[in-house]
Amino acid sequence: MFKFPKNYTTLKFLAGLMLCTASASALAFCYPINYKNEHAIAVNPSSNKIYDLNGVFANNTCRIYDYEFQSSYVSVIDGATNQIDTRLNFRNFQPFGDWSPDLIAVAVNPATNKIYVAGYRIAAVIDGKTNTLEIVPTGISPHVVAVNPITNRIYVTNNDKTVTILDGVTDSILSTVAVGSDNSTFKHAIVVNPVTNKIYVTNGGDDTITVIDGATNTTRTVAALKHPFALAVNPVTNRIYITNNDNTITIIDGATDSIIKTLVVGSDNSAFKQALVVNTVTNKIYVINENNDTVTIINGATNNTSTLTTGVTPRAVALNEKTNKIYVANYGSNNVTVIDGATNTTATVPVGTHPNALAVNPETNKVYVTSEDDVAITVIDSSTVVEFYNTQLDNYFLTANTSEASAIDGGSAGPGWIRTGNTFKSGGSTAVCRFYGSQSPGPNSHFYTLLGAECDRLKQLQTTIPATEKRWNFESLDFISTVPINGTCASGLLPVYRAYNNGFARGVDSNHRISTSQAAIQEVTNRGWINEGIVMCAPIGVTQP
Q1: Average pLDDT, stretch 115-121?
Q2: Most buried pick, 178, 231, 373, 468, via CB within 10 A?
Q3: Which pLDDT band holds residue 481 (cuts at 50, 70, 90)?
């Protein structure tokens, strides 16, 4: 039998760091962490690395310091393995001693593999290849950062009514541009249109936005807004969408930088209630209304609007244009609303306590969610566990790895393997251990069990049984599921059954069938297999022939 490639999803435990995984309808799979108030996260889809701004952390005591909006670390996560590559301590690179540098914003240039971080007391660039850190000069209290990957220019808003423009080659200042006329602390958001090479900056204190011409660094002002807060650009249509604090969205024509439409959204004047995101493929704009627990959907072609209900207190929004899925972090209900952009149907994913930021990797179709109070990163993973059967070996096999499944379909695992049509969703609170025997001495098969006592016992036996004898060898944490309670699954979860071919007694290689289909389990028990009952619980969303 073909020995399938390993698919490790284990984490490197570094100073108590937590990482979680979940499916589109599942609980989070978490490890302990020891920092708080995470509120910014970014993904580099080219390198599959995730950059997370973390709260104050004590290396020696692992004590949690509950300082609101005081982040001192950037955690670099390898999206392929879910391992923590490193944690960069910004306190070692800023002149304020024990003061926190208050990191609040992070942006990635995937073309150069550089990551730019801003905080109230510091701005810096991280080399994504080496994870080295270098301080970059800016104005007073850098606040938000944006990147134009085409021109390799970086734009940092400062609290002294300026924007610092950096050369991405040297990371030195090219120019400093005056914007707005008010020093209101939370006045600047910034977005780049890489097609037109224009940069848009909100000035909430004086009800304007500043438009920077990226070619000349000259500016112009667009007035007649009401405390503009967040903005997004559609580079395809050259439209800019700005949230205001009077329940409206201002739409600007990027060709003339003039207001062409004002739309009413939501019904509450909460100061920081709206974030928004644009799908350039469908030309739809999604605006969260924090105090209304809704999302307003704007049709960019007609400017007509519709509304969807979210969880409680939606705080952040992100999208995957490849899958046309929109993700809304609901701060008050501790979950993420997943919107299908094609049908506007929704699903809900439980995550950590008080989720407040999201980032999407469209290449891997994973979503990273930070949570403020239980200090977790949840990874939403829509993987499906697929069952194969070998007609020659009378052997069943599972995988949640799409590449591995495709390889089996292509014959890489040898002849006789077919899909049974049985699938179930990965997702839950506990990882599933995957073991393999050997072609010789065997067992020439795989075995799956939830992380816990049975998994630990098999790992222990692996250390005591010689490789020349039959034994199970741990391969990976293959997918995620949920532990049954007293042999049953909670409401909203599907029971996953396991049947054993009684290989030891029959003198053949041991094999198990694991399925949510009772009919599938009954079929093999009719052939003398032993029904071991419910061994795990899967999220809703399975195929059962």
Answers
A1: 83
A2: 231
A3: confident
Q: In this structure, what token pair is assigned to residue 7?
A: 């698919």
What does the CA dihedral 530, 534, 540, 545 come to, rounded to 10 degrees?
10
Please name which of 292, 261, 186, 276 lies closest in space to residue 230, comparing C-alpha atoms. Answer: 276
Contact assessment for residue 251 and residue 265, using Cβ atoms and an 8 Å cutoff? no
- Mean of the pLDDT values across residues 215-242? 93
Taking the C-alpha atoms of residue 359 and residue 338, their distance in angstroms, rounded to an integer, is 13
Q: Where are the alpha helices (DSSP H) in 414-542?
A: 453-464, 503-506, 518-525
Other C-beta atoms within 10 Å of 531: how many? 15
- pTM: predicted TM-score of the whole model, two decimal places: 0.74
Domain presence at residue 530: yes
Residue 489 counted as domain residue: yes
Give yes or no for a contact between 197 and 249, defined as CB atoms under 8 angstroms apart. Answer: no
Q: Percentage of the chain with pLDDT > 90?
A: 51
Domain assignment of residue 497, yes or no: yes
Q: Which residues, at least 6 apart from 470, have a Cβ–Cβ distance to it below 8 Å?
A: 437, 441, 442, 443
d(C-alpha 435, C-alpha 446), whole Å: 5
284-335: per-residue pLDDT in tens?
A: 999 999 888 999 999 999 999 999 999 999 999 999 999 899 999 999 998 8
For residues 53 and 38, the answer to whether their CB atoms sit within 8 Å is: yes
In angstroms, what is the C-alpha Rg of the chain?
Answer: 26
* Three-state SS at 503: helix
Residues 448, 455 contacting (CB under 8 angstroms): no
pLDDT tens readout for residues 148-174: 999 999 999 988 889 999 999 999 999
pLDDT attached to residue 28: 32
Contact predicate 428/481, CB 8 Å: yes
- The answer as to whether 200 is a domain residue is no
The residues, any chain, with a CB within 8 Å of residue 193's CB and separated by 6 or more, are: 199, 200, 233, 235, 238, 240, 254
What residues make up the domain containing 390?
A: 384-539
Tally the domains of the chain. Answer: 1
Residue 143, by phi and psi: left (phi above 0), alpha (psi -120 to 50) or beta?
Answer: alpha
* Cβ 165 vs Cβ 192: under 8 Å: no
- The pLDDT of residue 319: 93
- Across the beta sheet with 122-127, the strand order is 103-109, 114-119, 122-127, 132-135
Amino acid identity of residue 94, one-letter, is Q
Alpha-carbon dihedral sign for residues 397, 400, 404, 410: positive
| 27 vs 434 pLDDT, higher one | 434
- For 453, the 3-state DSSP assignment is helix
